[in-house]
User: Fold Transposase, IS605 OrfB family protein from Halorubrum tebenquichense DSM 14210.
Amino acid sequence: MEDAIRTVKVKLNVPTERCDDLHQTKDQFLHCANTTSEWAWRHPNDYCVTSKQKAENALYDRLRDETELTANLVQKGIRRAIEATKSGVARLEKGEKTSQPQFDAWSVVYDKRSATFHRDHVSLSTVNGRVECDYVLPDDPEDTPIGEYLLNEDYEFRMSTLQYDRSTASFYLHARMRRTTDKQDQFTTTSDDAKHRTVLGVDLNVDGSLAVTSTGAFIGNADEMNHRRREFEKTRGSMQQTRTRSAHLSIQSMNDREHRWIQDELHRASNRILDEARNHGCTHIAFENLTDIRTRMGGGKRFHAWAFRRLFEYVEYKAEMDGIEVARVSPAYTSQRCSSCGFTHEGNRRSKHQFVCQKCEYELNADYNASKNIARKLLKRLHSGQTSSSGGAPCQCALKSGTLNLNGEFHASVDSTVEGESTDKPTTSVVGH
Ligand SMILES: [Zn+2]
Assistant:
C-alpha cells in the first residue's frame, strides 16, 4: 500500500516572549521521556517494559505532578520512550549492542489534542498555556512540499514534532500530513465527518456513585473516596501540627495507602467507563466541564476537582488507543432537564438522587438522567459541526438498551433481548442501582 503520509518542515514565527515557554516545554517533555526510559529499561531484573499501558499506569501520575505539562504531552513523552525501548529490545534480540535510550535532542511530539493545526498557523500547548505560531510560508509555495501537502486540503495533520535549530535560533514544525481522500481512509477510526457517531455520556458525582453513564452503569464509590480522603487528612493534619503551619493539603504529595487507593479507584473507574464505551460501540465520551463542576462543590472542593480531572485524563489517554474521542460539555441544566421530554425545571428533582419530570412524570435516577443530557449535548455539538458533504451521518446517544438520536427516535439494540428490561423510551420506568 502506498504510504500516504508526508512530512513537511515549516518554520514557525514564535512570539519572542513565548520562546522560553517552548524551551521549558521541551525540557519537561524530555524529562518524561527520560524518566520513562530509565524505569522501563531492564526493569526490574533485566526485563524491559514495552507496554505503553503499563508504563502509563506506573508513571503517569508521578510525571503529571513533576511537570506543568498537559496530560497529553506527559502521555506522549512516556510513549516516545516506550517506542525507543521497543526498538532497543529488538536490537537486543538480534544480539546487537544497545543501551538505555537517552533523550536529549530538541523535540516535542504534538497531536490533535495538544495542538490545533491550521493551514497558516498552529496553536501549541506549553507549560504556560497555548502559544499561537504563524507559519513562515514561501512567497511561491506551489511545487514545494508546503504547497503540495501543508496547504492542500486533501491532506490532514497527524502527529507532528516541534523542533529547534540552535544555529539559527528558529523553531520548526515537522508536520506529518496524511492524505484523506484515499479509499483506505474510510476504514480507519481517525477522521472524519462522514462517520457514524455514538456518544456515551458520563455524569460525575461528589457522593453516591462516582460516575454514572448514559448506558445506565453506576461506577465507583464517591462516598468511600471521601472517607479515604478524610482519613488521609487526619493523619496529615496531626503531622503538620508538629512541623509547619502551612495548612495546604497537597494532594499531589499524598503518598500513603489512602492516596494509592484513590488513584487505583480512579483507574478502575476509568477502565469501566471505557468498557462501557466499547461495549456500546461508542465513538465519543462526553463529560461535564470540570472547571464548572468545581464551583458547584462544597467541602473537599480541591479534592473533588483533582479527582474529576484525573479521572477525565485517565479516560482520555486510555480512549486514544481505541480511537475514541473524549470531550467536555457545559454542565448548564444537565441536572434539571428531563432526558425524556426535554422539559427543564429546577423542581424536576425529587431528591438528590431522584429525578421526576413535572411535565411527563418520567422518573429515574437523577445522575443517570444527567448523563443522558450530557451525551445529548455533545451530540448536538457534533451534529452542528458536521459539514454538508457528510450527508447527515448518523449521530446518536448510547443508552442502556439502544440508541437515541437528536430527533428523539429510539432504536433498540439488536442484542437487547432481556425480558422486561427497562428501556429509555418515554415511560415511567425507574432505573435504579
Ligand atoms: Zn419529561
About this structure: Residues 194-223+260-420 form a domain with the Nucleotidyltransferase; domain 5 fold (CATH 3.30.420). The two ends are 50 Å apart (CA to CA). DSSP finds nine helices and 19 strands in the chain. Residues 338, 340-341, 343, 357, 359-360, 362 surround zinc ion (CB under 6 Å).
